[in-house]
Every structure is written in structure tokens, then in C-alpha cells.
Amino acid sequence: MFSKFRSLIFKIDPEIAHTLAIKSLKLNLVRNIFDENKGDPMFESTLFGKRIDNPIGIAAGFDKNAEVYNPLFKLGFGFVEVGTITPLKQYGNPKPRVFRLVEDQALINRLGFNNLGSENISSRIRARSPEGLLGINIGPNKDTKDRLSDYLIGFRTFHDIADYITVNISSPNTENLRNFHDEIKFDELMNSIEEEKIKLKSKTPIVVKISPDILDSQINTISEILLKYKVSAIIVSNTTKGKRENLQNILKHQKGGLSGKPLEDKSNKLIVKFFNLLKDKIEIIGVGGVDSGKSAYEKFLSGANYVQLYTGMVFQGPNIVGKIKKELKELLISDGVMNFREIIGKKNN
Sheet harboring 257-260: ordered strands across? Predict the structure, then answer.
């Protein structure tokens, strides 16, 4: 069905198309997808101690205001991450701010953490219990005088309703946000969150979402700090400011973060590096170019324990989870394995 309407959808401004997709999910206009591999032991896993049907999640950015997390579970996602959410409501950057690069199977966005604010979104989640494992992605307001304090507000607001909280230090669309990758600032942020967890007696797992544009010298430092504070997982990675030179679409030089297929190889190489440093101690959620069973397979081989996608659904449609699982199952069967976890990190052996 999606393939029939795709050319029509792609004539619409990307941000308007996204708004229509959210409304369709809210109104249940997107019918539940038949998934012949639902409950298949080949995909069963646990995330932060909770059983999930499969390791395919939807990344933050799709459901910024936590409007459709339950419909997304019905589309087959094993876990859903909402946000990024800031303490106060903010509009984000001026429009146009999302660009579809069809020839490259990519998006460029410079949204800038547009969302309704933590109080509004917290009330919504408390009124509608998640029907699956829900992650909440938090970040600071653009004009805040104290970004570190904003992260703590986010943690305090959501720690008791989230299955995990993602600390987003990696968006390229909030000026200087990526400075938190620096050793002193990152350590200070993680220490403050750890102190807040102790104060609140919270057991909520902490996840950190990093930039794909970090230097090799930063990988060791980031890994050491993640291990120091016993962070539960790392998301590798957010959108990139680079990788434009080989793109075909005329919009390739638009300012913002690039996502989709052009990010895949860069993400996979970064996953390999983190896997070799964090092996068995901190889980890895791989993001970047996941749109097929083969792309998910490569993420797992590189060392990801789970994957997330967003741009892939823009190009493949709402049945993408079923499609990925069907293709992935064929690859796993050909490998003679009983569960996808058996191939995690095999590229490193």
C-alpha cells in the first residue's frame, strides 16, 4: 500500500508529511501490520531486564511529543524512544528545516528540539500507559542559561515513567551541544545525573546518545566515563554534519544533520570501535541506515545489541519492522544460528 502512495507522499513537504503520519497513527488509520514472525524466538531479547519481542526500535525524533508510542508498538517495534524533550516548550529552528534526499535515501534536518516541553509530555504519558518498552530522550532548551540543570530537570520529570532515559548530547542543531563530548564536561554531566539518581533512589537505566563526528581520540575517553558511571547503554549514533561529498541530491548542502543510508558505514565503523572497548559491559544500540534485514544484520555483526531507525521508515513505509525481520531471519537461518544475539560482534572476531 505504501509503495503505491509513496510518490504522492514525496510531493508533500517532509515536515507536513510527518505531521500527517502522526495524525494517521493517532486516528488508527494505519492498520496493524500482519507480522508472521511475531513472537519468533529468533528475535526475542531483553532490554534493561525487560523482555522485548524483537531488537528493532524507533529512534527519538519520530514521536517527539509522545503522541503515538502505543500505535508504534502495534506496528511491531520492539521498543520506542520518544523526544527529544526539553524542560520548556520550544518551537525549534525556522522552517523549512527538513529536507528529503530521495536519490540518497537520506534526510537532512535542522529541527532544533521542537517539542511541547516536559510538563505537557509527562502528563500525556502518565495518562496513557505504554504498551511496550518506552525510552525517553532528554535535552536542554536552546536559550537556557544552565544546560546541565536542564538535563537534571528532564531526569527528575521522567525517571519514574521511563523504562530508560537517553541523555542526548549529540544533536548538531543546538549550538555547542556537542561540547558535552569533551572529557571534563561529559564527566561533570554524568556525575550530576548519577548524584540525581542517588538522591531520587532511582533505578532507571541511563543511555547516552553520541555524535558520529567524534574524533578517534574521544572514543577512549567517552568509553572510560561510560564505564566509570556504569551507564546502561550507548546509542551509536546521531545524525552527521559530514558525509556530503558523494550525495546526489541538490539539497545535499543544506545545513543540519544527515541521516539514512549515507550514515550507515560511518555508524558501523564507530560501533566496532566502541564494541571493542565496552565488550559485555555496556550495551550498544546501533543507528544509521537501518532499512532492511541486511543493514540490521551488519549492525549486529559490528557489535550492536539492538538497532533503531527513523529515516528507513520514511522511505520503506510503516511495515518496515516486518520486512526487516523477514529478511534478517533468512540471513540468520543461513548462518545456522538460533537467535540473532549469536552474531553480535562477530565482525570483530
Answer: 98-101, 106-109, 257-260
| HSE-CB for 284 with a 13 A CA cutoff | 29
Residues of the chain with pLDDT > 70: what percent? 96
Domain ranges in the chain are 2-348
Pull the grid cell for residue 198: 542517588
With CA atoms as reference, report the closest residue to 273 among 318, 321, 237, 320. Answer: 237
pTM of the model: 0.96
pLDDT digits (tens, 9 = 90+) for 145-198: 999 999 999 999 999 999 999 999 999 988 889 999 999 999 999 999 999 999
First-last CA distance in the chain: 42
How many Cβ atoms from other residues are within 10 Å of residue 26's Cβ? 13
Sort 174 into a burial class: Cβ within 10 Å, 0-12 / 13-18 / 19+.
Answer: buried
Euclidean distance between CA atoms 24 and 21, whole angstroms? 5
**Nearest 10 degrees: CA dihedral of 22, 23, 25, 30?**
-120
Architecture of domain 2-348: Alpha-Beta Barrel (3.20)
Tell me which residues are annotated as active site: 171
Q: pLDDT at position 28, please?
A: 80
